[in-house]
Design goal:
Length: about 300
């Protein structure tokens, strides 16, 4: 889907990226992570030509074609872009903001309105309530949802997201992370997300790419980062003291629940993580928890010991 070969980028003689090569597969949710100045946002902006690589240096291909061969209109259609600051036009309504790219692409009005309503519904913003509101009438989380809707409006094949949830409160951030996971599951789109938050990367990424001083120092599945860090730098970034807790966050309760008679107590959902289950065990001071599925139907029981041993 996206292939980068031997790309470097400098600003005023300072190297931001050094000979980076990376391939992102179609339908993958990849996370670029690193500390400030690591080069992750610079790399993302090369994908849609907000930045250009150093002259005569490497190449970037989208669907096998050099990205320089795409017109701006083609890039807007194929690549959506969402950023932390949202960047909504303040004097445009929600509907006008979401419709910006389809309007540039000269979509019929009826098709644009249908697409706006689809995306507002997908992101849990009732169209009849929010369509005609202005950005200043929205909360931060609602603005961010509109920003994501705008990035998705032209049904792009790739969605780029540069720390989109970084300025939000923890509850709203968690909610939008779940929305993004749902969008990915429903659409199968290729998504590249930039973050500095290791927990966000572990929660969302199918593959994590860690950069440091403009170079890729490790890439792989979340479990690889936790169990097989490639260096002390990676180990420190992940945080070895929290590895056990973070491993629990990678597995769903459904994978460990046991069949059995119902027990008393407030149930936990099978689509939650084992990390969430651990919190419930500790706060409730119990050794067993009833589990229900996403429809509220009894699914079995989770025992504290099940957190430590995988069921076969």
């Amino acid at each position: 889907m996206i292939e980068i070969e031997n790309i470097s980028k400098s600003f005023d003689g300072r190297r931001a990226l050094s000979d980076v090569s990376l391939a992102i597969n179609a339908g993958e949710l990849a996370v670029l992570i690193g500390s400030s100045g690591s080069g992750k946002s610079t790399l993302l902006k090369l994908f849609n030509r907000l930045l250009e690589p150093d002259s005569g240096n490497g190449n970037i291909r989208l669907l096998g074609k050099d990205i320089a061969g795409y017109s701006p209109e083609q890039l807007r259609r194929r690549i959506g872009y969402a950023i932390q600051s949202v960047g909504l036009f303040p004097h445009w309504t929600v509907e006008q903001n979401i419709a910006a790219v389809p309007t540039l692409l000269k979509w019929p009005k009826a098709r644009i309105q249908q697409r706006v309503d689809e995306l507002l519904t997908l992101l849990h913003l009732a169209p009849e309530t929010f369509r005609r509101r202005y950005p200043h009438q929205l909360s931060g989380g609602q603005q961010q949802r509109v920003g994501v809707a705008r990035a998705l409006a032209a049904d792009p094949e790739v969605l780029l997201m540069d720390e989109p949830f970084g300025a939000l409160d923890p509850v709203t951030r968690s909610s939008l992370q779940q929305e993004l996971a749902n969008i990915h599951a429903i659409s199968g789109k290729t998504i590249v997300l930039v973050t500095h938050d290791i927990d966000e990367a572990l929660a969302l990424g199918e593959r994590i790419v860690l950069l440091d001083h403009g170079r890729i120092v490790q890439q792989g599945a979340p479990r690889d980062f936790l169990l097989a860090p490639a260096s002390d730098l990676v180990r420190d970034f992940v945080g070895q003291s929290d590895v056990g807790i973070r491993l629990l966050g990678l597995d769903k309760i459904a994978a460990r629940v046991r069949a059995g008679p119902a027990i008393e107590g407030e149930p936990i959902r099978s689509d939650g993580t084992l990390r969430e289950a651990l919190s419930a065990f500790i706060t409730r001071k119990v050794h067993s928890l009833p589990v229900v599925d996403e429809h509220g139907q009894a699914a079995g029981v989770l025992h504290f010991a099940d957190l430590l041993t995988e069921r076969t």
